[in-house]
């Protein structure tokens, strides 16, 4: 049985997360040793904090559970796409559809608005009720950009079981964090000791 733990035990950001919110979203449910999971979107409050830290929602937006559920659903679709890319397998059509729907759900054009005091101006509508839709569109756009950019060739999965995170490789690094690298090296050393002993 999978057990959820607090985000304090989650590893630091994986390489590439700062540049790609889609990668950060994919990594927001972290598999930890012992069958534990840290879900950084486990509640509406956590989802709101996650979005606010990335400038995708204002502090105090008051997200509901349905909003957190939408974010977690997009996370699973993005994880599916990243896993397909890493495995060099065709992507699931449902994942591609989910990304395209998220990208096109909100208007991207600046609309003409009129203020009695200042006259006409252009702005992209962003009502409070559409905060999550705008965040989902931004993340989905980033996922599409990541998968079609030169960075896609550097995309890999962390090589330290049970970690389930993705990262952008820099050099020979195969792990999402120092903690995962240390765990993999310790496992290799233990395997060598037990094989010779």
Mean of all residue-level pLDDT scores: 87
Number of helices: 6
- Helix fraction by DSSP (H/I, runs of at least 4): 40-55%
Please give the order of strands in the largest beta sheet: 1-3-2
* Percentage beta strand: 5-15%
Distance between the termini: 34 Å
Taken in chain order, the helices and strands follow as EHEEHHHEEHEEH
Overall, the morphology is elongated
Query: What would you call the structural class?
Result: alpha+beta
Low-confidence stretches: 1-7
- β-strand number: 7
| Major beta-sheet overview | 3 strands, mixed
Radius of gyration, in angstroms, nearest whole number: 20 Å
What this model shows, in words?
The chain has helices at residues 21-26, 44-53, 65-87, 93-104, 131-148, 178-196, and strands spanning 3-5, 29-32, 36-39, 111-115, 119-123, 155-157, 166-168. α2 packs across α3 (65-87), α3 (65-87) packs across α4 and α4 (93-104) packs across α5. The relative contact order is 0.16. The chain starts with a strand and ends with a helix. Helix content is 45%, strand content 14%. The chain contains six helices and seven strands. By secondary structure, the protein is an alpha+beta fold.
